[in-house]
Amino acid sequence: MSENKQMSPQELVRRLTALSRPDRALDAEIGMMIGYTRRMKNDLDPETGQELHVAVWESPNGDEVRMPHFTQLIHDAHLLVQTILPLSIGGASWDEKGGAARIDNGPYVTAANSAIAICIAALGQMEEPDDLEDDDNGVDAPD
What we know:
With about 140 residues, the chain is α+β, with helices and mostly antiparallel strands. Helix content is about 30%, strand content about 25%. It is built from 5 helices and 6 strands, in the order H-H-E-E-E-H-E-E-E-H-H. Helix 1 (about 10-15) runs antiparallel to helix 2, helix 1 (about 10-15) runs antiparallel to helix 4 (about 115-125) and helix 3 (about 75-85) runs parallel beside helix 4.
């Protein structure tokens, strides 16, 4: 996936639903959607003294951080929910077959694990930008 074009919430939900285990590439896509950025950092190898180019992540507030494990850790999936649906309530459960989650009055979601289910439930409640505003050219549609 190109770094210039992010997946829509619906595309992420589709891909998360198909997962059978956590996926770091999707963790990165989710992170970029909520404001994490990736940049290259120059560093020196302590043993050889050679210059290294290392990829690092920055959180939305500019701190250098690890990308959260949204699809693996319930705590990190909860961070996603608190970021995009800060006043929401919800719950998650799991058993030997996988996980389930529900946020507010949204649907019950099942997935490979409870962290993935939480991500699906949260992203499923995100609204897409209204593309119709750009398409109507200022003309009211007939009733």
